[in-house]
């Protein structure tokens, strides 16, 4: 969305401007997608120049004349497409949600991408049931820890966390996983087999791709479900279709951004659920690092070099 003016009241409002809200941004999430879009490697390619930043939290400074869902001073989170890493953001009221009183702005900024992805993957796509076993890859990342949090504390599932270092595995265990696998030390499939036997796992949430995806696919139980969330490892695997047939398993994708465009009621309901879970303390987001706006390149490098665990935020205040 282009900024129509420095302030909403800078002139006569058009129809589109009537529903805009000007927000004082406090925190903005750093996502791998922000790095990809800046490098021209993301599915969506905004016209240059653009400001990265897909999610943010802040307070309302000003509202258009037709805004009915919030007022000046309200605390909000927003899903901005690509313009959130700025001191102020002008955005349609439809893509703002009020933050419950007991949820801090810093914590709220972690929810729109990582936790909506986790809930969409586990609930909406995989239909995870209580007592089922969930395998999550890249388990110490922002999405991985969100999957552990939601699966364990909301859905009452059992989680096997797979990550690429002992340090990351320990963090995943501390955050609620029942078992851990370091896939840098050998076969993921064999490690999972040792944990659950030949029966396999019911659900896989994969953000890595490549060989990790294929081994996770081979770890599924009868009528298991694998959800493809991303390809952080840099390789998109080709999947032998016979692997789906042999155990009647399902492979499905999850593209977070398309839900906002194609099925907004589902997107909005799940983000509202994440806010409610956070207010109830059923989920507790893990923030791994906070950078200042002038340190944004350091923040990107921190994520790109796989040094980050949990959510990385930019602080605008």
From TrEMBL:
One of its GO terms (cellular component) is mitochondrion. Residues 15-314 form the Enoyl reductase (ER) domain. The lineage of its organism: Eukaryota, Metazoa, Chordata, Craniata, Vertebrata. GO terms for molecular function: oxidoreductase activity. The gene is LOC115288106. Belongs to the zinc-containing alcohol dehydrogenase family. Quinone oxidoreductase subfamily. Transmembrane segments: none annotated. This is Enoyl reductase (ER) domain-containing protein. InterPro entries: ADH-like_C, ADH-like_N, ER, GroES-like_sf, NAD(P)-bd_dom_sf, Zn-ADH-like_protein. It comes from Suricata suricatta.
């Amino acid at each position: 969305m282009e900024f129509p003016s420095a302030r909403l009241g800078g002139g006569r409002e058009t129809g589109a401007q009537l529903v805009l809200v000007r927000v004082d941004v406090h925190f903005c999430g750093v996502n791998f997608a922000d790095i990809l879009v800046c490098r021209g490697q993301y599915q969506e390619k905004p016209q240059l120049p653009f400001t990265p930043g897909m999610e943010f939290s802040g307070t309302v400074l000003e509202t258009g004349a037709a805004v009915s869902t919030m007022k000046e001073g309200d605390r909000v989170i927003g899903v901005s497409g690509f313009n959130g890493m700025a001191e102020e953001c002008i955005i349609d009221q439809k893509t703002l949600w009020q933050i419950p009183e007991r949820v801090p702005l810093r914590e709220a900024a972690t929810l729109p991408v990582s936790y909506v992805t986790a809930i969409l993957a586990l609930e909406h796509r995989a239909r995870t049931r209580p007592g089922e076993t969930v395998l999550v890859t890249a388990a110490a990342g922002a999405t991985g820890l969100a999957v552990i949090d939601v699966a364990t504390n909301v859905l009452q599932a059992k989680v096997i966390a797979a990550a690429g270092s002992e340090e990351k595995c320990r963090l995943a265990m501390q955050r609620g996983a029942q078992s851990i696998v370091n896939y840098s030390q050998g076969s993921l499939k064999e490690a999972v087999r040792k944990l659950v036997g030949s029966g396999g796992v019911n659900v896989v949430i994969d953000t890595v791709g490549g060989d990790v995806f294929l081994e996770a696919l081979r770890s599924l139980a009868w009528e298991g479900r694998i959800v493809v969330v991303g390809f952080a490892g840099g390789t998109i695997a080709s999947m032998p279709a016979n692997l789906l047939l042999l155990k009647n398993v399902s492979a499905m994708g999850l593209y977070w951004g398309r839900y906002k465009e194609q099925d907004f009621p589902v997107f909005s309901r799940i983000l509202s659920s994440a806010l409610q879970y956070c207010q109830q303390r059923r989920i507790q987001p893990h923030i791994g690092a906070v950078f200042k706006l002038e340190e944004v390149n350091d923040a990107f490098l921190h994520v790109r070099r796989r040094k980050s665990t949990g959510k990385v935020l930019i602080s605008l205040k």
